[in-house]
Structures are given as C-alpha cells and as structure tokens.
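In the previous chapter we treated chains in isolation. Here, by contrast, the input contains two separate entities that must be folded as one system, with a combined length of 559 residues.
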Amino acid sequence: MINYILILPAIILIGIVFGYPIIRYFWLSFHASSVLTNLDVINNNGANWLRVIGDGRFWQDTIQTFRFASVSVSLELIIAMAIALLLNQKFRARGVVRALTLLPWALPTTIMALGWRWIFNTPYGPIEKIALLMGFESINILSNPNLAWMATVIADIWKTTPFITLILLAGLQTIPNDLYEALKLEGGKSFDSFIRITVPLLRPYLLISVLFRLAQAFGVFDLIQVMTGGGPAGSTESLGLYAYLNAMRFLDFGYSATIIFFSFIILSSFCLLSWFLIRKSKLILSSK
Amino acid sequence: MKRQNILIIILLLWSLGPLLWQIYTSFSTTESIIRPFETEGNRWTIDHYIQVLNADPPFWRYLFNSFIVGITSTFLTLLLAIPASYVIGNSNSKFAKSFKILLLTASLFPYVLLFLSLLEVARDFGLGNNLFALCIPYSALSMPLAVLLLSAAFKDLPNDLEEAARIEGLNLWQRLRYVLMPLITPAISSTAIIIFIFSWNEYPIALTWITKSNLITLPVAIARIAGSSIYSVPYGAYAAATVLGAIPLILIVLLFQRQIVSGLTQGAIKG
C-alpha cells in the first residue's frame, strides 16, 4: 500500500504533462476548432483524418522528417564512434578535452541554432566568405532547397553527437583489453578488431542511442524553426513545425492535433520496427 | 606533431567552433561583423557587452530567472522521483514494472509536440507568467531520466542494509533520509545537474508560458534580442548575450563533468 502512495505523486505529474495532452490531441483530432468555428470545438466526424491522408504537404513533411532523422542519426553514429575511439585513448588533459566536447550538448538548442544561422549567413557568414575566397560562386546555403536541409543536419550533428559519444565511450570501457590482445596474437589487424570485437560488443549501446536519437530527431522543431523557419520552399519543414504552424499561425487547432497524433503513431511504429530489426540482426550475428 | 594530437585539435575546433565564432562576433564592431576576415583599424569593441548589460531589465535578471526555474524544477523532480525510485528499485511487482514502461514510452515522445496542449493547461489553471509554475512541466519531462537513474542506484544497494536499519527501529522516512539517500548521493547529484541544465535551456514551454519581460528565462531573452529589430538580426548584441549566457553552462560542464557523464550514460544504458 505504502508503495502506491510513494509512486502516486510522480504518476499524477506525468499524467498531467504527458497523459492529458495526448488524450486531448486524440479527442481534438475528431473535432473542428479553428478561426472558422470561432475557436469553438465542433465534432466533424473524422474530417481531419481524411484531410491529413490527402494532404500533400503533410506527406512531404513526413518524407523530409525521415530524411532529416535518418541522415543525422546515421552520420552522428559514425562521427560519435570515431570520437569515442579517440577519447578512449590515453592523452594529456583527457578530462578537460572530454568536458569541452560535451559543451554543444549543454548549450541551449535555440540559441546555438541562431548561431549556426549566422555561420551559414549569406553574404556575411564565414562559410560563404571562405567559399568566395576560394573562388567558388556564392553558395547561399540557407536559401537553396537542396542545401538548406544539410545545414540543419550539420547543426543537429554538432548539437547531439556528444550524447551518443558518451554512451559509446561508456560501452568501450566495458570491453576487456584481453580480447584485443588475443586477436593481435592471432595476427588480426586493428580494423579486424574493430569489426570483430568493438562493433559486436557495442551493439546494445548502439541500439539504445539509435532509439533515443531517432525519437528526438523525429520530433525536431526549434532547430528548424530558428535556422530556416521551414524554408526555402518548405524544403526543411518537419512534422513538428507543420503542427506548430497549423496551431499558432493558421489557428487550426483541430487539424494541428491530428497532425501531432498521426506523427506520434508513425514515430512509434517506426521505433518499434527498428527495435525489432536491430534485435533480429543481433540474433543472426550471435548465431554465426 | 602526432596524428592523435591533430585529431584532438580538429575535434575541439568542431566542438567549440560555433561558440568561438560567437565570441569573435561579440567583440567585433558592427562594421567589421559583416567583414569577418578583413583586418582594419577599430576592429575590436566591447560595446555589444555594454549594450546587453545595460538593457532594461538588466541581463543578470534573466540569469536569476533561469536559476530559479532550474533550482525549483530540480527540487520538485527529486522530491517526487526519490520515493518513486525507492519503490521501483526494491520491488518486482507488476505495478512497478508497468510504471517503468510508462516512463520509457513517455521519454520517447517528442516533447515539443506537447507544448501546444500544455499551453491550454497553463491557461486553464492560471499558471502563466509564474516562474515557479514552469517546474511542473520540467519535472514531468525530467521524470523518466530521474527515475531510471535513481531506481538503478537504489537497486544496487544491499538489501541487508535497509533490513538492519529496520531492526534498529527506523521508520521509512528515517531509513531513506539517514541510511539510503546518503549512499546514493552520486546518482542524486548526476540527476540534479542534468535536470538543472535541461530546465535552464528549455525554450518552447518557457516561451509560451511566460510573457512578462522581467520574468523570461535566459534562452527566451537571448532569442528576443535576435527578434528585437525587424530589419536585421543585431548579431553583435546577440553574440554577446550568447557568450554571457554560456559562461554559467561552461562552468557547470567543467566542474561537474564526471556527474554529467555518469548520469547520461547510466540513464541511457540502464533504461
């Protein structure tokens, strides 16, 4: 009995902050609530859901969100692995270096997103200036639909790689050195030991970082809003931003709720799917 | 130079580059900001800092607001998470397990999608423009990490210990306060620092819940500087504000590196 009393306050708090909004979004997704209805909530018998299925902008944003999430998370994994291997070696002032590489994680996303916008600024930012000095034409990164999304990926990689690095670093420290010694005695090269020891033993750590980061990257919002506002030509608009625009700019709360709830369904099934796939591949590998 | 050293320098340039660029911009005169690679007379200035520090309300006010939000959120989270983690760490009941799954699902939900609905909650309960009210969403958002970290720490304590304290006649509160909590101090401090940094940095909820300009938190205040002119972003003042706002975070990261690292890694792995 006492156990329930001890957990209850935490459950109530989570209920208010997570439970209520999710239920409210679900309920609101079957209602019209916009400027047209004077913000009154009127049942519209699933019209929002029909609309979202036929909404080209929604699907374009879904594709963009997947592109953003998959490209950033896979690049982050590769870069974080390289950094973790480097930071796992012995060198002077290792503690300070590790702390400094953590800094991007600790700085506020919104503020540094604006910092990145300044770096990619045309014509005053350093990237543009360097490109001109090297004799290239003006790149105009944030106004080019083919490049702007890559700029947001770079900023996201900068911001969140430290988190994955930490997890992989923790994983590396659990691998006993004897394994590497043994492989060396058998004549294995260092790349062999990476493929045959490091990657398989880091698998659970890789799995957990992929799951956490996919979920976060899928909900990307403030980074995009600050850096590009979803432009140019909607090329960087994420689902989170589209839902936000529907509520705050078009004042269409019913449709906004539908987008949020639908993206949540897509995200959960995607997370479940990747979880199963990675688990399955683990079984295959371990049966070898 | 050794290859390793070169790699470390590249890594540091990458990690610190954007911040270094902000520092460089913040000390440049408005004329030289738009010509970053040209050397000329009168290149350097501290005017942007003077401007930011003399603004009304003064800059330290935002630091103070963020500090209040950070402290109250950390306190509320620990207050609720420690008892809950004690139960989860010590019990294998279905109830405790389903609570853990609930937390994991919650931690996967992209929280920015919550803030539209949370804004309604704030309106209905009159929580707008109240710094202390921000600790409600922040504690809930921090709860998954806090409970995972703390319950793992409780689980690692030997059972005999609490049994001995029980035989000594200590009640639950006394056992927690004098026997168990002192032993999990490392986990508590890791949790506290990560929650503090999260609450200090949070933007969408702080932006929508607080509108009075003397109550806004640091990230919102800095973003406001950027939006203060409709023609162009005043990058000099913005960079100066970013640098000033980053100093406390740099200090926290350097001082509490060990706690942050163990907190983040344990949280991800034990979760």
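Chain A has a mean pLDDT of 83. The longest strand of chain A covers residues 31-32. Compare these points with the single-chain example from earlier in the chapter.
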